[in-house]
Amino acid sequence: MAKSLLVVERVTHRFGGLLAVNAASLAAPEGHITALIGPNGAGKTTLFSIISGFLMPREGSVLYADEDITGEPPHKLARRGIARTFQIVQPFGGLSVRDNILVGAHLHHRARHRALAIAEQVGHDVGLGDMLDRPADTLTIAGRKRLELARALATEPKLLLLDEVLAGLNPSEIRDIVPIIRNFCRRGITIMMIEHVMQAVMSLAELVFVLAEGRVIAEGSPAQVAANPAVVEAYLGHGAAAKLGGAHAR
Amino acid sequence: MRALAPIFVVVAALAAVPLVVSSNVVLNFLVVALLIALAGQGWNILGGYGGQYSFGHAAFFGTGAYVTAVLQVRYGVNAWPAFAAGIASGAALGALIGALTFRSGLRGSYFALVTLAFAEVLRIVASVAPITGAGVGTLVKLDLRVEAMQFQSRAVFYWVILALVAASLVIARLIERSRFGVWLVAVRENEDAARALGVDATQVKLAAMVISGAVTAAAGCFYVQYFLFIDAPIAYGTWISVEALLTPIIGGVGTVFGPLLGALVVKSLGEAAKLITGDAPGLDLIVYGAVLVLVIWLLPRGLIGGLAQARKRLRRRAPAAAATAEAGHG
Fold first, then answer.
1. A48 touches chain B (CB under 8 A)
2. What is the mean pLDDT of residues B263-290?
3. How far apart, in whole angstroms, are the C-alpha atoms of residue A12 and residue A22?
4. What is the mean pLDDT of chain B?
5. Which CATH number does the domain housing residue B47 bear?
6. 8 Å CB contact between A27 and A4
7. Chain B contact for A65, CB < 8 A?
8. Which of A64, B18, B60, B74 is the most buried (most CB within 10 A)?
9. What is the tally of structural domains in chain B?
C-alpha cells in the first residue's frame, strides 16, 4: 500500500479517571480511504480531536507527512492541509450556505472574488448548488452534513477527517453522499473516516481500524475485519463470536 | 467602490445639514449623537462582527480622552498629534486587554465582566492619580484656532465628527468585505468550527479589539476637543460603556449603519422623553428605558435587522397578493 500520510503512534488520552484512548496506533495511506470503526465510547472522536489539534494527547505522537504535529493548534494544522468535520454538525447558523463555505475557501485565498468562486464550486460539488443563499440553519440534517463536507473541502485539504458524516441520514441520502466522498478520494485527498454505517465502510474503505475501549483491536481490509472474532465480540459482547460460530455450524 | 456607495450617500446627506440648519441646539444634538455613533461603531466591530460583548468600552473612550487632554495640558503637545496619540493609545489598550483576556480563553459573560472591571479600575485610578487631575479633572485651555483643533463654528466641529464617523463606516464596510471580516464573523458564529477551518481565533479577536479600541478612543479624543474638559466619571463612567453597546444593539449589531442609526434613534428618544415628561425629574429616563426594552424585545436584531425582515416579508407577500388579485378578476 501507499506510504502513510498520517501516522498515529501509541497515543494515550485520559479524561480524569477515564482512559479514553489507550496507546492507539494507526496510519492512513496517502490517497486512500481509511475507516475508523468501533462501538460507542470506544474513543474514536477523542482520537480525531487529538489528530486535528483540539486535544493534546497525554502520551504518544501524531506524524503528518513525516513531521511531528503533536499538540499543534487546529488552525495551523488546517494550514498544513488537515481538515475535519464534526460529528455534531457545527454550521455558522446565522450565515448563508455560501458564506459558510467562504470561511474555508479564504484559508488559502485572500481575494474575495477568488474565495467566492471556490465556495460556489465546492457548494455545487457536494450538491448544495441550489441552496447557496439559504441560511445555514434552515438546512435539513442531510444538508448540514453536506455543508460540513463543503466547508472542510473548501480549505483544499490533503487529509480529510470525517466524523460520522453519514450518521442520522436515511438510506437514500447515504447513497447520495457516498459517491461524493469517493470522488474526493479520486482527486487525491487522503480520507480517514469514523463511521457506523457499515454498508458505507464496506464500499468505501480500503483499510479499517477497529477501536474498542480506547485500544486498536484489529486492522485490515473491511472483509478481514468483519470476520475477526475480536471485532464481533467488541460489538456484541464476550462470547458472541463463539455463539455465532456455533449458529453457523448448525 | 460600489460597496462604499451607500456610505457616501449617507455621509453627503448628513454633511449638508449645517447648510440648512443653523440652530446651535440641533447641531449640538447631532454632534453628540455622532460622537456616540463613533463610540458605538468601535463596540460594533468587536461585539457586532466578532460576538465579543464588551461592557467596558469606557476604557477606550476614557483613555483616548485623557491622552488627548493630558498631552496638551501637561506636556504642551499640539492638539492634532495629541488626538492621534489618543487614538493610538486606544489601539494599544485594546491589544493589552485583548491579549490578557483572549489568551486566557475568556469568552461570553466572563469576557464582558473582565472588560467592565478594566473600565472600573481605570475610573478609580483616574479619579485619584495626579496626572489626570484626580477628582478635579483636566481642563483644556480655550484656544479657538484650527491649529489647536478648536473651531469657532459648531458646524466645523460637526463636520470633523462626521468625517470620523464616515471613516468608521468605511472601516466597518472594508472589514465586512475582507478575509479578516469573514473570519471574525466565523469566530462569532462558532469558534471551534472556525478554528477547524484554519482561523486563528485568538489572533482574529485580538485584531478586532485593537481596531475597536482605536475607533472608540477616537470618540473620546473628540469629546475632549469639543467640551474641553474631562474627569473620571465622564471618561470611564458606565454611561459611555452602555451607550457604546446600546446604539449598535438598537440599530443592528454587525451591520455597517447599525451604530449610526441606533445613535440617532436613541438620542432622539432621549430628547423626546424629556419633552414629553416635562419637569418631572427622572421620568424621562423611565420612558427612555421602557422604549429601549420594547425595541430590544420586538426587534432582537435591531432596527436594520427588523427592516430587512419586513422587506423580505413584503417581497414574499407581493407576488402572492398579485396572484390573488388576478384570481379575483378571473
1. no
2. 81
3. 5
4. 91
5. 1.10.3470
6. yes
7. no
8. B60
9. 1
Q: Is A94 on the interface with B (CB under 8 A)?
A: yes
Q: What is the pLDDT of residue B326?
A: 54
Domain of B62 in residue numbering reads as 2-298
- Tell me: do A64 and A16 sit in the same domain: yes
Mutate to test the interface with B, among A77, A87, A92 (most CBs of B within 10 A): A92
Determine phi and psi for B140, rounding to 5 degrees.
-90, 135
pTM of the model: 0.90
What is the predicted pLDDT for the residue at B318?
67
- Among B49, B177, B197, pick the best mutation site for testing chain A contact (most A Cβ within 10 A): B197
Which positions 167-226 of A are in contact with B (Cβ < 8 Å)? Answer: none
Return the CATH number at A216. 3.40.50.300
pLDDT band per the 50, 70, 90 thresholds, residue B325: low
pLDDT digits (tens, 9 = 90+) for B16-75: 999 998 888 999 999 999 999 999 999 999 999 999 999 999 999 999 999 999 999 999
Residues of A in contact with B178 (CB under 8 A): 112
Task: Please give, rounded to a whole number of angstroms, the shortest distance from the CA of A89 to a CA of chain B.
Answer: 9
ipTM, interface predicted TM-score of the complex: 0.90
Question: For residue A175, what are the domain limits?
Answer: 1-79+157-250
- In tens, the pLDDT along B169-208 reads 999 999 999 999 999 999 999 999 999 999 999 999 999 9
Statement to judge: residues A241 and A171 lie in one domain: yes
* Distance in angstroms (rounded) separating the CA atoms of residues B70 and B267: 29
Distance from CA of A153 to the nearest CA of B (A): 10
